């Protein structure tokens, strides 16, 4: 498994259909053709906010030639924000929009608005478009160092060569204070006499107003007394920065050197909420992510992940007393090297925080060293502030990168289930100490960067089902004893949550449907929810105990288990579906009704217009969904604690 980088992960391309259904359709490629005589202009937006307009007929022809031979694929594309967006303005005032992913290692992909699939460019056409977009992007306006308009945004990139701007932005600045420092540094710079022959610049900076872009090369290091500037379009003329400006820029660019541990500044905003920001870091040099939130004894506890600099990360447990304006760090750990084999775990596993009892919180305590380290299952005492390691060094360090893929807590028995990406499974019994540990046996399906669900746990923790990609699902007891296998239907949709359980853990079921777009209720990376046509039921050991199908021969009818009245009687939702749009995935659900079904007796019961209030509702466990709504909101730059009512 490849190591994860929090920032790079956002740019990974993933395509999912159950059973890897991926059908090409070359006829759709012709739909990218543009009638050149009807084109008025093409407007290109890049992901840094830059904008260019193409009106030259030869350039428009180059654009059209590059896209019209692309290969069409009707699979849905799940991807980060596009690097370029092109709006083709037609003379009849209509337009056609395209989104492109063509930089770096991206495989030359684009989509056209109004279509469900995507297109793949040849390497030649990818290069042609990139040249077209970037060559115009670098025609920034500048008059030596004269800037006489309001700058709204500044981008910073590591420089690659004289005379061009690196499109891979490292940092972006939008706050007035930082912008003023950069503008003042440029305006007060002094020209160096003569023509210069310099080494490769350290940085490329682009100042962006509403109408123009001003691009400069910048030479500055942590030890510089005076930095140097050059206009990107005049690379033989240099300008020396003042000592004052150099010092101010160094504070912005190298602020991570001032970071000496996680602490927070706090202040009340205009509506009285408390806003916390990490001390010692430039606002443009870090990202925050939030984890679980738990309240014990009137204090709010929550986990956060702080990423700053090139590859520095901090995981922490924070506490806030609503009666104060303080945010305190109760525990933290830091990782500074992506080559550390705990990298993926550290980047992903900061969101487990469980109330163990009224005085203790259960969490994953990392203790990383420069190259390795350990992980412990620990409790934090909210009264004494002490940490106790309940399962010390429980996670063997492997040669490959690993992380906790899913966990589940059974509060009444104080049992914790965890499955790691590489297939470690732990069922920790914190009451009796009788743990069940299965190392490297039940791995996650290695699809995309995060993996697809492979293990489906009974609510009792006494059974689980594993998909080892052998076209069969195997039922196991908690000791890892194989009980029975059931076949996965071929040429049919099965949802990503292949097996679900009733609350008693005595009945399991599997939904199936024909492979058809009008059977997809929801789809995302490693996730599929279907409008089922058939439901197969099994006992806790995997023995088939019956099935139900949609009634009648209508192609648009569907059924779903939405709740349970008791251990045997299920609440079945019956409904019809229709496609929202002809070429897009998404269904309208109509004609909903409910009825009871006794799985053991195979008998249909009473019908209802809504789910009976006494039913236990079945939840849809979508991987990666964490509910962090409530009194604490973690954005990329700050944490907001809502004012007490």
Describe what you observe in this structure.
Mean pLDDT is 86; it is low at 4-30, 135-143 and 623-628. The chain has a seven-stranded antiparallel sheet with strand order 2-1-4-5-6-7-3. The chain has a seven-stranded antiparallel sheet with strand order 9-8-11-12-13-14-10, with helices on one face. Strands 33, 34, 35, 38 and 39 form a five-stranded antiparallel sheet that branches. With 645 residues, it is mainly beta. The relative contact order is 0.08. Strand 15 and strand 16 form a beta hairpin. Helix 1 packs antiparallel against helix 2 (123-137).
Topology:
Layout: E1 39-46, E2 51-54, H1 57-68, E3 71-73, E4 84-90, E5 95-101, E6 109-112, E7 118-120, H2 123-137, E8 153-158, E9 171-173, H3 176-187, E10 190-191, E11 203-208, E12 213-219, E13 228-231, E14 239-240, H4 243-253, E15 264-268, E16 274-278, E17 286-296, E18 299-308, E19 312-320, E20 327-335, H5 343-348, E21 353-355, E22 360-368, E23 373-381, E24 387-391, E25 404-410, E26 415-420, E27 425-429, E28 436-438, E29 455-457, E30 463-467, E31 472-477, E32 482-487, E33 492-493, E34 500-501, E35 507-514, E36 520-524, E37 527-530, E38 534-539, E39 544-549, E40 557-564, E41 569-581, E42 584-598, E43 603-608, E44 616-617, E45 632-634, E46 639-641
Antiparallel strand pairs: 1-2, 1-4, 3-7, 4-5, 5-6, 6-7, 8-9, 8-11, 10-14, 11-12, 12-13, 13-14, 15-16, 16-46, 17-18, 18-19, 19-20, 21-22, 22-23, 23-24, 25-26, 26-27, 27-28, 29-30, 30-31, 31-32, 33-35, 34-35, 35-38, 36-37, 38-39, 40-41, 40-44, 41-42, 42-43, 45-46
Largest sheet: 7 strands, antiparallel
Low-confidence stretches: 4-30, 135-143, 623-628
- Count of individual helical segments: 5
**Roughly how many Å apart are the termini?**
47 Å
Beta percentage is 35-45%
Total beta-strand segments: 46
What would you call the structural class?
mainly beta
Spatial sequence of strands, sheet with the most strands: 2-1-4-5-6-7-3
Overall 3D shape? globular
Radius of gyration: 29 Å
Give the overall pLDDT as a whole number.
Answer: 86
Helical content (DSSP H or I, runs of 4+): under 10%
């Amino acid at each position: 498994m490849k190591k994860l980088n929090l920032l790079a992960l956002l740019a990974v391309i993933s395509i999912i259909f159950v059973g890897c259904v991926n059908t090409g359709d070359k006829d759709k490629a012709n739909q990218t053709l543009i009638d050149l005589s009807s084109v008025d202009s093409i407007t290109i937006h890049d992901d840094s906010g830059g904008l260019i307009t193409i009106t030259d007929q030869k350039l428009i022809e180059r654009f059209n030639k590059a896209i019209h031979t692309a290969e069409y694929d009707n699979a849905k594309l799940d991807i980060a924000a596009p690097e370029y967006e092109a709006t083709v303005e037609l003379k009849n005032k209509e337009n056609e929009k395209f989104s492109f992913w063509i930089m770096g290692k991206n495989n030359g992909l684009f989509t056209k608005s109004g279509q469900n699939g995507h297109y793949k460019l040849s390497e030649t056409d990818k290069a042609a478009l990139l040249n077209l977009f970037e060559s115009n992007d670098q025609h920034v306006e500048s008059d030596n160092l004269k800037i006489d308009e309001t700058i709204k945004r500044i981008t910073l990139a590591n420089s690659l060569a004289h005379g061009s701007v690196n499109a891979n932005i490292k940092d972006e600045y939008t706050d007035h204070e930082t912008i003023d420092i950069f503008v003042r540094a440029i305006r007060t710079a002094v020209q160096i006499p003569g023509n210069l022959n310099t080494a490769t610049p350290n940085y490329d900076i682009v100042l962006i107003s509403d109408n123009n872009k001003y691009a400069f090369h910048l030479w500055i290091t942590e030890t510089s007394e005076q930095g140097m500037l050059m206009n990107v379009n005049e690379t033989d003329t240099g300008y020396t920065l003042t000592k004052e400006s150099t010092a101010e820029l160094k504070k912005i660019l190298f602020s991570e050197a001032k970071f000496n541990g996680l602490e927070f500044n706090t202040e009340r905003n205009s509506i009285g909420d408390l806003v916390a920001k990490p001390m010692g870091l430039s606002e443009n040099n870090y990202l925050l992510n939030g984890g679980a939130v738990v309240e014990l004894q009137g204090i709010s506890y929550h986990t956060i992940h702080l990423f700053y600099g090139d590859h520095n990360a901090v995981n922490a447990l924070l506490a806030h007393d609503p009666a104060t304006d303080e945010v305190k760090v109760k525990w933290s750990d830091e990782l500074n090297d992506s080559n550390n084999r705990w990298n993926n775990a550290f980047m992903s596993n900061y969101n487990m925080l469980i109330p163990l009892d009224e005085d203790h919180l259960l969490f994953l305590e990392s203790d990383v060293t420069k190259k390795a380290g350990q992980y412990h299952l620990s409790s934090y005492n909210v009264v004494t502030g002490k940490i106790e390691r309940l399962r010390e060094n429980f996670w063997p360090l492997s040669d490959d990168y690993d992380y906790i893929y899913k966990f589940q807590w059974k509060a009444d028995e104080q049992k914790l289930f965890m499955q790691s990406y590489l297939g470690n499974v732990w069922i920790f019994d914190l009451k009796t100490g009788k743990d069940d540990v299965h190392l490297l046996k039940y791995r996650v399906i290695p699809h995309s960067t995060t993996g697809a669900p492979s293990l489906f746990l009974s609510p009792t923790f006494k059974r689980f089902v594993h998909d080892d990609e052998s076209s069969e699902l195997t039922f196991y007891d908690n000791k890892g004893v194989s009980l029975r296998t059931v076949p996965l239907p071929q040429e049919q949709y099965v949802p990503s949550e292949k097996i679900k359980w009733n609350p008693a853990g005595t009945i399991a079921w599997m939904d199936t449907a024909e492979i058809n777009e009008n059977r997809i209720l929801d789809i995302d990376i490693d996730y599929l929810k279907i409008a089922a046509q058939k439901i197969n039921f099994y006992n806790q050991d995997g023995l088939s105990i019956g099935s139900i199908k949609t009634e009648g021969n209508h192609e648009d009818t569907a059924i779903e288990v939405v709740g349970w009245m008791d251990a045997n009687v299920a609440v079945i939702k019956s409904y019809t579906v229709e496609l929202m749009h002809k070429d897009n995935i998404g269904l309208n659900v109509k004609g909903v009704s409910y009825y009871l079904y006794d799985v053991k007796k195979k008998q249909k019961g009473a019908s209802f217009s809504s789910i009976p209030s006494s039913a236990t509702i079945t939840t849809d466990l979508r991987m990666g969904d964490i509910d962090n709504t409530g009194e604490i909101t973690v954005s990329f730059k700050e944490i907001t604690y809502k004012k007490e009512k």
